[in-house]
Design a protein that fits this description.
With 345 residues, the protein is of the alpha/beta class. The protein is 43% helix and 17% strand. It has 13 helices and eleven strands. α2 links the parallel β1 and β2. It is globular and about 65 Å long.
Length: 345
C-alpha cells in the first residue's frame, strides 16, 4: 500500500477504532485485512522507506489480502502515545522509541546506558536479540504484544553550534538530550540538559536557546541540522532501542498462513535488514555533515577516560535501581556489556 496522507487520517482512525468493539476472531485467507502502522519520524526517510518495503512484501505474499497503511510524523499516534494506542487496538502496529518511555522498559533500554563501546546498529541489534533469547524478564516487558523487528539507532554523538575542543567546553551549554542515561551523564559533565522533540531542535538551536544536542547522524540529516551544526564531540556515547509491536488481537485475527508471512519480517534476521540499512545511511550522512565544514572535536585521552568514569558511575546506579530480590540487574548489565564486546568489530 502507498503511504496514507493526513487528509484521510480521521476516516482511518474511525475504521480502526470501530473494529475494536470486541475480541477479533481469527479470519481466513479469503478475508482482507487493512492494518495501520504509526511511526513518529517522517515517512519519506530511509527508515520509512524500509518499513514500506516490508509492508509491500507482506501485501504481495498475501496476494493483496493484508494491506498496511503507513502513517508518519506521528499523524496517527504521537511518540508518547503509540504504545497505548497499539495496546488498545486504535493502531495495529507501532514503532516505539523506548527513550520516550523512560523507566517503563528498562531491560530493553539497557543498551542506552552510555559508554558500552557502541559501534553500529548491527552490533546493537545482535546485542538486543541475544538478551531477548537469554532473559525471559526482557521478553516479559513486551508480553502484551507481538514483537516484530527490534533494532537500535546508529551511534549517537553530541553536536554543537559552537566550537568545542574539550569536555570542559560543554560546561554550561544547554544541550537537548533524550531521557535516561545520556541525560544523566551529560548533566554530570556540566551540561544544562533540555528535553525536546527532535523536530524542535532546529528552531531552538538557530535561536541559541540550546547550543547542542545528542542525536544520531541520520537525525541530523532528517531535520536539516547540518545547516547550523559546527562541531561534533568525538565520543561514541550511546544508542537506544526501537521496537516494532503489533496489537495481540490483530495478530491473533490473522490466519496461520498470513502470520507466517509476518514471521518472515520478525526476529533477528529481519531486524538486521533495518540495522544494515541504517548503518549505511548514517555513514553517508556523517560524511555529508563533515563536507559542510563541521569540525570534529578530537578529545584527549584524559577526556575519554573522564567520560567513561561518569558513564560507569551511571551504570552502577542503573543496576542498583533495577535489581530486585529475584532479578540481578548487575548481572544483566554485564551480559549486555559482554554481548557488545562479542560483536565489536
Amino acid at each position: 500500500m502507498k503511504r496514507t496522507s493526513a487528509l484521510i487520517l480521521t476516516a482511518a482512525m474511525v475504521f480502526t477504532l470501530a473494529s475494536c468493539g470486541g475480541p477479533k476472531k481469527q479470519g481466513t485467507t479469503e478475508d482482507h485485512y487493512r492494518l495501520t502502522f504509526s511511526m513518529h519520524t517522517p515517512a519519506d526517510t530511509p527508515i520509512g522507506n524500509q518499513f514500506q518495503a516490508m509492508f509491500d512484501d507482506i501485501e504481495e505474499k498475501t496476494n493483496g489480502h493484508v494491506e498496511i497503511n503507513l502513517y508518519g510524523s506521528g499523524t496517527l499516534a504521537s511518540s508518547a502515545d503509540v504504545v497505548d494506542m497499539v495496546a488498545d487496538g486504535a493502531c495495529d502496529i507501532g514503532w516505539v522509541f523506548t527513550s520516550f518511555y523512560y523507566g517503563q522498559y528498562p531491560l530493553t533500554d539497557v543498551i542506552a546506558v552510555p559508554g558500552q563501546g557502541v559501534q553500529s546498529c548491527v552490533q546493537g541489534t545482535r546485542v538486543l536479540w541475544d538478551l531477548w533469547e537469554q532473559f525471559p524478564e526482557m521478553r516479559d516487558e513486551w508480553s502484551d504484544f507481538k514483537v516484530l523487528v527490534m533494532f537500535p539507532n546508529p551511534v549517537n554523538y553530541v553536536y554543537t553550534n559552537t566550537q568545542v575542543e574539550s569536555l570542559d567546553d560543554l560546561k554550561g551549554l544547554s544541550v537537548r538530550s533524550p531521557s535516561g542515561g545520556i541525560a544523566e551523564v551529560l548533566g554530570a559533565l556540566g551540561c544544562n540538559v533540555i528535553s525536546m522533540a527532535p523536530n524542535d531542535i532546529y528552531d531552538n538551536l538557530s535561536k541559541n536557546n540550546i547550543q547542542g544536542y545528542a542525536l544520531e547522524p541520520t537525525g541530523v540529516a532528517d531535520y536539516s541540522l547540518d545547516e547550523i551544526t559546527k562541531s561534533i564531540v568525538d565520543i561514541q556515547m550511546f544508542q537506544a532501542p526501537f521496537i516494532t509491536i503489533m496489537n495481540m488481537e490483530t495478530w491473533n485475527s490473522l490466519p496461520p498462513e498470513y502470520q507466517a508471512v509476518f514471521e518472515e519480517w520478525s526476529g533477528v534476521d529481519a531486524s538486521l535488514k533495518f540495522a544494515e540499512m541504517w548503518d549505511q545511511t548514517a555513514d553517508q550522512n556523517m560524511q555529508e555533515l563533515l563536507a559542510t565544514g563541521c569540525a570534529v572535536a578530537e578529545l584527549s585521552q584524559e577526556d575519554h577516560n573522564r567520560f567513561q568514569q561518569v558513564a560507569d558511575t551511571y551504570a552502577d546506579s542503573w543496576a542498583d535501581a533495577y535489581s530486585t530480590d529475584t532479578f540481578d540487574a548487575l548481572a544483566y548489565f554485564q551480559a549486555c556489556q559482554e554481548a557488545y564486546d562479542k560483536y565489536a568489530e
